[in-house]
Write a structure and sequence with these properties.
single chain, binds zinc ion, 3-stranded antiparallel sheet, BirA Bifunctional Protein, domain 2, 14 strands
Length: 304
């Protein structure tokens, strides 16, 4: 008798069998097929139209972030369990000999590496804030940022990837406009996702802060209504998956990165972020694994 896998493993197996995703042998790290990537690119394009509408400056980001920027974001305090740090070899010939010896002997060669000036990027918008340092124009600025992000949370749930694409529309500037951007973006994001056939609802949310201290941070974030997620059922009706989030940062980035409004006050920021891979998988589950058979209106919105 075949023992049924959990619904997450079941879905991942279906995506592997259809060769939409390819296994690398590591949970949460996958190759993408051309069909999968075509859907992901179409989702990116929906966000790009939005960025164009609000006059956003477009910044495509690498999957790495400057360590100095990362250190200023407080991420390591809040999410130490999700961090990925890049370490590099700075040694000389003698160190190289020892490095090779350890590799051959199955020894601890990573111990010979040193932290590089970069870490893996945990969120697309983080790299943006140091670029905004100084005085902003009146009315603030909109940015559209996208790139691969990393979070160390290996899982058989195919929507919980370690390396995944994030696409955000970010506002930096006046406090009331930042709040409005968050609220309007939540509504607009839900409407875009509904238009491509996803059943998405908004729910107050908190970030997965680490440890005992983190519980208090999460409660505070919920109390103050700083974060909302758009969730949809992918593998489970009881435990829907977040596919977008709308976040009010207040001066959390404006203060450490020295960003000022046109009148010299500390700038506020807000972002709406879309999990491009999660939306891609949600679409495959909702409409079927072959996009050529998807409903006409959905195909028209995505692919024309
Ligand atoms: Zn963001």
């Amino acid at each position: 008798m075949r023992i049924a896998a959990d619904p997450y493993t079941e879905l991942r197996n279906r995506l592997f069998e259809a060769e939409l995703l390819f296994s690398t042998g590591v949970d949460g790290l996958y190759g993408r097929s051309d069909t999968y990537q075509g859907i992901a690119d179409a989702v990116d394009h929906l966000m790009h139209r939005w960025g164009h509408d609000v006059g956003a400056t477009v910044v495509h980001l690498p999957p790495l972030i400057a360590r100095s920027t990362f250190d200023s974001t407080d991420y390591i305090r809040s999410f130490p369990d999700l961090v990925g740090s890049v370490h590099v070899f700075n040694g000389g010939d003698r160190d190289h000999v020892e490095l090779v010896r350890r590799v051959s002997a199955g020894g601890d060669w990573p111990a010979l590496l040193e932290p590089g000036e970069i870490v893996l990027s945990p969120a697309a918008c983080y790299s943006l804030y140091p670029m905004c340092a100084g005085r902003l124009p009146a009315g603030g600025r909109y940015f559209e940022v996208s790139g691969y992000c990393f979070r160390h949370e290996p899982s058989t749930d195919p929507t919980r990837m370690q390396a995944f694409k994030m696409h955000e529309i970010v506002y930096v500037g006046e406090p009331d406009t930042a709040q409005r951007h968050r609220d309007d973006s939540l509504a607009r994001g839900l409407s875009i996702l509904t238009d491509i056939g996803l059943d998405v609802t908004a729910t107050p949310a908190n970030d997965p802060f680490f440890g005992r201290l983190g519980a208090a941070l999460a409660a505070g974030q919920l109390d103050e209504g700083l974060k909302f997620e758009g969730v949809t059922a992918i593998c489970s009706d009881d435990r829907p998956t977040a596919v977008m989030s709308a976040n009010c940062h207040r001066d959390h980035f404006g203060a450490p990165f020295g960003i000022e409004t046109a009148t010299g006050a500390v700038a506020h920021s807000a972002c709406v972020g879309f999990g491009v891979d999660r939306i891609t998988i949600a679409l495959l589950v909702r409409h079927g694994l072959d996009p050529s058979t998807w409903p006409g209106p959905v195909r028209a919105r995505l692919f024309s």
